[in-house]
Amino acid sequence: MKNLKKTLTPAALALALAFAIASVVLLVSGHNPLTAYRAMWKNFASLDGVVTAVNVGARYYVSAIAVAIALKMNVFNIGTNVQYQVAAMFGAVVGAAIDLPAPLHVAVTLFTAIVAGAIWASLIGILNVTRNVNPVLTGIMLNGVGLSLISYLMQSKWTNFRDPNRPEYGSTRPIPKSGQLPVFKIGDATIQSYVVIAVLVGMAFYLIVYRTRFGFDLRASGGNASAARSSGVNPKRMMMITMLISGACAGLIGMGIVLSANDQLSYGDRFPGMLGFTGIGIALLGRNHPFGVAAAAFLWAALDQGARGLVTVGIPGEIAVILQGSLLFIAVIVYAVWERKTLATIIREAAARTHAAKSQGASA
Amino acid sequence: MMNVRLNGWQRASLSALGVVLLLSVSARLFDAPGLTGSSTVSTALGFAVPVILAGLGGLVAERAGVFNIGLEGMMIMGTWGAGYLGWHFGPWGALLGGLIGGFLGGALLALAAVTFAVDQTVAGVAINILSVGLVRYLSGIFFDGKGREGDLGTIADSPSVRNFGSKFSIPFIGDWLQTIEDKRWFLLSDLAGTVRGFTIEVAWSSVLLLLLIPAIWYLVWRTPFGLRLRSSGEKPAAAESLGVNVIFTRWMALLISGSLAGLGGAWLVLDSLKYQQGMTANRGYLGLAAMIFGNWMPGLLSIGALLFSFSQSVGFQLGLESRAVIGAVGLSFLLATAWNVAKKRYMPALALGVVSAIVLWFASANETINDAMIKALPFLLTLIVLTVASKRQRPPAASGRPYIKGEAG
């Protein structure tokens, strides 16, 4: 219970400060903050609003977990933003090309995306391990290369990549019925079964990071790399495995969009292109913890959903992006300060105990 | 065995000469005289300016011990500031606006990463995300629907910004170089074209901002402040014990760093004659890559940026020319193969030989090259360069570590 309070207090503090900043920005630009927040709340607090936030939040969650697993060993996988697009494209191509019974069809499609994401991410690992190239820079360069690869393949003469029957979409062929992820109706709202995949990803993350030898080594390498090395952890091997897992996870980010019956059912021009970067922010906001990230992902998606209601009161929806951005910025400061404060308290208490024990020993 | 020690500037100019030589060979082989033509080079020089400025910003920050991945966000803020002040007050206003925008971004990072000692990468990424939302919100208020009829701003771009009226040329030598360039003599004409690209019809904004390369070099390596800055980046605890205020120094470094990135943004605005959303197109990150390639030295950094922007500039001209760049890459792999053979390292030599054969075959087999591939070329080239250069890098020792006052005890 005390632990929970310790986690929630800084998060609540950051949230309050972020809303304060957004309110000032709104006031300065001549809008009433209360009107804005009421409109946002109204658009979110309905069955449809909440379900949409859950559907979108699931993508954000998977995206954030892909980043978080690498961050556990202090490696920034900034390449997720294109890893997931490359993976979604290959996933969509294979999903449309094969013809298998329903569960197997979906499994093969998802597996393709996972492998494509892992391969693309492994390039970062390979260059780092063999040539010592900074993974952040490799990630950025591969983002540029990956987008070119996608547009090259999508423009090519191969009709698996570009559906000739629907030139107006500029997309892959549609996924047939047997390859789709089911959706469920709750009243007017439609929830995607992709949410289950997100939950499974979260569970796998928890088990790998906190319940396996690999996870222990991962956290040890992130905490103190040289100590981990001298206790027998091979940093190059860790780097490679981490990038493979992170990329595999990133491969799943876009698959809810590609495979859900109420969504795009193909990869093309309308596919969202910033989910990876959003995931980075959410991973940092949720402090790389499976539950923290879940809360952050839902909050982020809820703000997105709320922002769509701002049009009705004539306030620019970008205020939500300011809210998200300043929340992230303040949160990382509050977390860092809070952590140091708790650390200082722990040290002080330990010192006091030692001192007390010493004086007791002296008096005895 | 030769054992000549060269200083940074000598090495930089020698490698520049080597690059021109390589390109001129490739221009002959693949029949693409435009490869080293003055127009390609002058476009490349322009493209390089914002990347160089971002790189210099990264250099100043990291020499003081802060890894600044927020450069992209600072540059974005710079473009917005330049768009706003440039629209109202012309080119000088744009430069000032870029400086202010970047300065504020630098202050944000300093607040988080220096004062509150947040993880530097985390704080920088937060700024990159924040800046995107911020400029879009500001555009909605200050640009959307404003301006004159036919020149209205929107949420994604500003009304048009005026650039400096004239361009800068070094007098007299232009015609003379043109004559040599037209002769198509091997290497000599290529050199003339290159020099001409650097000296004729250069935008004033480029000239002004490129002067910052020697200025930053002087600041960091020849002033007392520069000494304090570098000591804060190498051994902050020792620096503090000698009376250097590490926190203050890092703050100053980040303010300079952000301003430089912002000025890079201003260059973009003056070049496109308005602010456009997303116009930085990852140049902040590319600046970091150039900095790492340049081993945290301004001269080599600029060459790295030029190399990148050169392949971009060639991409603008499409067709045969682009093929010659790929050919040049293949030739450099071939050189690396020869080098490894001479050093009796046969395994790397074999690998490099295979790669160079594939690349050269590709360049000679394809008359024209796909548009998407041309877009990928600068990134691929940077990756290759990083792969070659990264092993022998020496970043500032304390880079990336937050410093807490009194750590020295």
Question: What is this structure's SSE topology?
Answer:
The complex is a heterodimer of chains A (364) and B (409).
Chain A: H1 2-28, H2 33-44, H3 47-71, H4 80-97, H5 102-131, H6 135-155, E1 183-186, E2 189-192, H7 194-211, H8 213-223, H9 225-230, H10 235-251, H11 255-259, H12 275-285, H13 290-307, H14 319-363
Antiparallel strand pairs in A: 1-2
Helix pairs in contact in A: 1-14, 2-13, 3-7, 3-10, 3-12, 3-13, 4-5, 4-6, 4-10, 5-6, 5-10, 7-8, 12-13, 12-14, 13-14
Chain B: H1 8-29, H2 38-63, H3 71-115, H4 120-142, E1 147-148, E2 151-152, E3 167-168, H5 173-183, H6 188-199, E4 202-203, H7 204-210, H8 212-222, H9 224-234, H10 236-241, H11 246-272, H12 283-293, H13 298-317, H14 319-342, H15 346-365, H16 371-389
Antiparallel strand pairs in B: 1-2, 3-4
Quickly describe the structure.
Chain A has 364 residues and is mostly helical. Chain A is 73% helix and 2% strand.
What does the model show?
The complex is a heterodimer of chains A (364) and B (409). Chain A is mostly helical and 364 residues long. Helices cover 73% and strands 2% of the residues of chain A. The relative contact order of chain A is 0.18. Chain B has a two-stranded antiparallel sheet. By secondary structure, chain B is an all-alpha fold. The interface between A and B is large, with 44 and 49 residues.
